[in-house]
Amino acid sequence: xxxxxxxxxxxxxxxxxxxxxxxxxxxxxxxxxxxxxxxxxxxxxxxxxxxxxxxxxxxxxxxxxxxxxxxxxxxxxxxxxxxxxxxxxxxxxxxxxxxxxxxxxxxxxxxxxxxxxxxxxxxxxxxxxxxxxxxxxxxxxxxxxxxxxxxxxxxxxxxxxxxxxxxxxxxxxxxxxxxxxxxxxxxxxxxxxxxxxxxxxxxxxxxxxxxxxxxxxxxxxxxxxxxxxxxxxxxxxxxxxxxxxxxxxxxxxxxxxxxxxxxxxxxxxxxxxxxxxxxxxxxxxxxxxxxxxxxxxxxxxxxxxxxxxxxxxxxxxxxxxxxxxxxxxxxxxxxxxxxxxxxxxxxxxxxxxxxxxxxxxxxxxxxxxxxxxxxxxxxxxxxxxxxxxxxxxxxxxxxxxxxxxxxxxxxxxxxxxxxxxxxxxxxxxxxxxxxxxxxxxxxxxxxxxxxxxxxxxxxxxxxxxxxxxxxxxxxxxxxxxxxxxxxxxxxxxxxxxxxxxx
Length: 502
Prior knowledge:
The chain is mainly beta. A 5-stranded mixed β-sheet has the order 31-33-34-38-41, with helices on one face.
């Protein structure tokens, strides 16, 4: 009797092992996916090559600036091969290690996903909707008249206004020997003359003219003319520089003393400057004109320049700013990038809370690197890595300690316009993970060494020393084992009852 019970126990143990092994091998194909355990590590795991990969559902047409998550299906599900993504043209589409695709340019290209020897392709077209396409432009200058060596700023308005974030505008001068213009809209006078500044965006253009004049003499004596009678009219000052709305009083004198001291004043262009009977000039609009002062026998000319970006002449001849200063100034960060002779420009995070499209454009144009120093980190944006200037980059990183390590969110989940290097003050961790919002799990990116992270995807990041790559085991193992134990128990009880009186 005891021998029989022992045999039954041995058989039960063997049966449990057989059923358990069968359940583990079938776990990947089990329909009970909702009961999967994610945090169990099996010591006997072996390499399982991918047998197929399917693209799954995705959006074949994207708008410029948008993003989407690719989710290919790899079989068998317990394969140990990871998925690798490659873009045929990174000027149109970029793809992260986790399969996040960002539309950075207009056109059509292909994303290839590979798992082991298996591959699948995504053909995606990127376009702009009507709100992103410029249909009209207006170009103006803060002043259409400048001195040789001086500069003014170009002002551009596009319609529809929503297209301003996506417009790529080039500025050119019809005569660079007279005036030049750079990519940031700064027009500089080179020599006296007239040039046409043209803004081009696709097939849409806008133009404006700039007149460059020589710097007038700074002698106190006024410009004067004389007649055959020998009379000479002198006016102080001989030239006036004003901002719109500012005023200046002229003082006229005729020689010899016997000449008439009653003068008339006339403006050549009252839309630029007007003059009162008593000789008070009032600036009206930007440009250059002249004031004729005459006593009826002799006359003199006074040059008047109305310029928003230049300091106005005051009544005492000195220069002082006025409240009516509508000149356009560059972003100080953009100005620093332009003017710096160093390849790296350093600001604090408080000074550059957001890397704007203008800053990205300045970095890409100059090829320089912007370093933003924050609390516990330094963020570096290299101009050579800027792929899009239509979006912005939030430079704030909040390092939060968790049970697993340190978490932070990059760019608050928005589409990154470029890859970003992050140097952290901590370097005690060895692994870097990115949270996959589709699968709801942390995805391993690479090892973390020397406190340096190079990221091309916005989102939640985790620094840890833990291995968060788990094998999936199905509840079938435990269910089948429990059923076998119950069957054996019932059989044992029935056997005991049958021979109870033995």
